[in-house]
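Tutorial handout. Part one gives the primary structure; part two gives the three-dimensional structure as tokens.
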Amino acid sequence: MYDHETIIKETGARLIGFGRYAGLVGAYNGFRALGIREGLFTLPKVETLPDLDAVKAELDK
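Part two.
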């Protein structure tokens, strides 16, 4: 594994950065994996949802 956010220019600026939505998707996927592993609930894959409001709606169910 490699942390892509540590790839920087000589000036110290990041060349690759993941923003807020990458973090939100990661958190959603973590909840989804927990639900599947423990057999507690199921969530659809995030790529099947049209937008952030749909993601929030699935988490609210």
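Part three, for discussion. Residues 19-60 form one domain. The chain has two helices and no strands.
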